[in-house]
Design brief:
two-stranded antiparallel ribbon; mainly beta; 4 strands
Protein backbone atom coordinates (compact mmCIF):
# COMPACT_ATOMS: atom_id res chain seq x y z
CA UNK A 1 0.00 0.00 0.00
CA UNK A 2 1.58 3.22 -1.17
CA UNK A 3 -0.02 6.61 -1.61
CA UNK A 4 -3.31 6.03 -3.38
CA UNK A 5 -2.42 2.58 -4.77
CA UNK A 6 -2.94 -0.97 -3.53
CA UNK A 7 -1.10 -3.79 -5.29
CA UNK A 8 -1.99 -7.42 -4.64
CA UNK A 9 -0.53 -10.65 -6.00
CA UNK A 10 -2.00 -14.13 -5.73
CA UNK A 11 -0.75 -17.51 -6.90
CA UNK A 12 -1.58 -21.17 -6.44
CA UNK A 13 0.74 -24.13 -6.93
CA UNK A 14 -0.32 -27.77 -6.98
CA UNK A 15 2.63 -29.80 -5.71
CA UNK A 16 0.76 -33.07 -5.96
CA UNK A 17 1.06 -35.70 -8.67
CA UNK A 18 -2.53 -35.40 -9.85
CA UNK A 19 -4.49 -32.50 -11.26
CA UNK A 20 -6.46 -30.52 -8.74
CA UNK A 21 -9.42 -28.21 -9.28
CA UNK A 22 -9.06 -24.98 -7.38
CA UNK A 23 -10.53 -21.54 -7.23
CA UNK A 24 -9.40 -18.50 -5.35
CA UNK A 25 -9.42 -14.77 -5.69
CA UNK A 26 -9.69 -11.41 -4.07
CA UNK A 27 -13.13 -10.17 -3.17
CA UNK A 28 -12.54 -6.51 -2.35
CA UNK A 29 -15.09 -3.94 -1.39
CA UNK A 30 -14.67 -0.43 -2.77
CA UNK A 31 -16.40 2.81 -1.85
CA UNK A 32 -18.49 3.80 -4.85
CA UNK A 33 -17.53 7.44 -4.86
CA UNK A 34 -17.43 9.45 -8.09
CA UNK A 35 -13.61 9.54 -7.98
CA UNK A 36 -13.06 5.80 -7.42
CA UNK A 37 -11.47 4.06 -10.46
CA UNK A 38 -10.66 0.38 -10.92
CA UNK A 39 -8.47 -1.45 -13.41
CA UNK A 40 -6.51 -4.71 -13.52
CA UNK A 41 -3.70 -6.21 -15.57
CA UNK A 42 -5.24 -9.55 -16.59
CA UNK A 43 -4.06 -11.99 -19.26
CA UNK A 44 -6.97 -14.43 -19.21
CA UNK A 45 -10.26 -15.14 -17.55
CA UNK A 46 -12.63 -18.08 -17.25
CA UNK A 47 -15.84 -17.92 -19.23
CA UNK A 48 -18.65 -19.51 -17.22
CA UNK A 49 -21.85 -21.33 -18.02
CA UNK A 50 -25.35 -20.59 -16.70
CA UNK A 51 -24.47 -22.30 -13.39
CA UNK A 52 -21.37 -20.05 -13.11
CA UNK A 53 -19.05 -23.02 -13.61
CA UNK A 54 -15.87 -22.38 -15.60
CA UNK A 55 -16.04 -23.71 -19.14
CA UNK A 56 -13.15 -22.14 -21.08
CA UNK A 57 -10.08 -20.00 -20.49
CA UNK A 58 -10.39 -16.98 -22.77
CA UNK A 59 -8.45 -13.78 -23.42
CA UNK A 60 -9.26 -11.10 -20.87
CA UNK A 61 -11.50 -8.24 -21.89
CA UNK A 62 -9.06 -5.43 -22.77
CA UNK A 63 -11.36 -2.91 -21.07
CA UNK A 64 -10.14 -4.27 -17.71
CA UNK A 65 -6.78 -2.55 -18.30
CA UNK A 66 -8.25 0.94 -18.54
CA UNK A 67 -9.38 2.86 -15.44
CA UNK A 68 -13.14 3.01 -15.12
CA UNK A 69 -15.67 3.97 -12.49
CA UNK A 70 -17.62 1.42 -10.52
CA UNK A 71 -21.24 0.66 -11.47
CA UNK A 72 -24.09 2.04 -9.37
CA UNK A 73 -25.18 0.38 -6.16
CA UNK A 74 -26.91 -2.97 -6.51
CA UNK A 75 -30.32 -3.21 -4.91
Amino acid sequence: LTGDELRLSLSLENRGRETMPAGLGFHPYFPRTPGCRLWARVDGMWATDAAVMPKALVDADPRLGAPHGLPGRRR
